[in-house]
Amino acid sequence: MMKSKRNQCIAAIILVILPSLVIISESAVYQFVHAGKDYAQLVVDVCIFLIALLLNKYFFKVKVYPFNNRRPIYQLLNAIPLIILLIFTGKISPLGMPKNFVLAMISVVMVGIAEEYVFRGLLLPILYKLFNNKAFLAIVISSLGFGVMHFINLLNHFPFYLIFAQVLLAAGSGMLYAALYFKTHNLVLPITLHVINDLTTFFPRKVGGNGGTLPASDIPRMLILLVAIFLVCGLIAWIQTRKAKIKF
Predict the structure, then answer these.
(1) Which of 71, 111, 200, 207 has the smallest set of CB atoms within 10 Å of its CB?
(2) Residue-wise DSSP of the chain
(3) What is the pLDDT of residues 3-12, one digit of tens each?
(4) Domain assignment present for 247
(5) In a domain, 106, yes or no
(6) What pTM was computed for the model?
């Protein structure tokens, strides 16, 4: 890995903004490869992953741990907080059937691979070294970067409160993903749970009524709940990593 603090800082900035820059150029990307809009998400995430992979190979040189089969029970125990969060937020629930099942399945897996590789596989170890092996600080900063990235969804004209809620939840869950990777050195685990988290987005069930829009009076309560979830996730991540032996 890079030794210079300056280079580590530059690498961290690049990794935080890389997904947003690629997403912003989404329309140009799928036009360039002559793919329809249905393939845009997949093309964008493949681009993010490949660019990050090349940057790491030739410049960052971060050792990524894609899989670790040691102490599987211990690894699964450390995944329990994330599993509970997925259940609590309704991510483990009946799914709908998209028009193109294969495309949806490949896309949701690619989202998990690309985002976890960038934010947990690369950014987290770089920040860990940048902040002189302060694990929790690296977890918080990388997770905030992961959460803030979701503000890009404002381009899809969703209500601001909904995007802000998504940012809070992504940042909170990001701390648990990061702690899990720190503890297990097994990127497959956060990727798998990330895919499960996104299944309801790619395999949505048809809903009636207002399509899930909250009454204005319920928005403050929802945001307070999400802030509480963010703080609890941070506490759990701190507990999980405060005495962990971390090696990158």
Answers:
(1) 207
(2) ----HHHHHHHHHHHHHHHHHHHHTHHHHHHHTT--GGGHHHHHHHHHHHHHHHHIIIII---------SSHHHHHHHTHHHHHHHHHTT-SS-----S-HHHHHHHHHHHHHHHHIIIIIIIHHHHHHHTTT-HHHHHHHHHHHHHHGGGGGGGGT--HHHHHHHHHHHHHHHHHHHHHHHHH--THHHHHHHHHHHHHHHSPPP--TTTTPPPGGGHHHHHHHHHHHHHHHHHHHHHHHTT-----
(3) 899 999 999 9
(4) no
(5) yes
(6) 0.94
Residue 223 domain-assigned (yes or no): yes
* Six token digits for residue 90: 């309704």
Looking at the structure of the chain, the number of domains it has is: 1
pLDDT one-digit tens code per residue, 65-119 = 999 999 999 999 999 999 999 999 999 889 999 999 999 999 999 999 999 999 9
Domain hosting 183: range is 5-204+215-241
Question: Which tokens is 63 given?
Answer: 């050792």
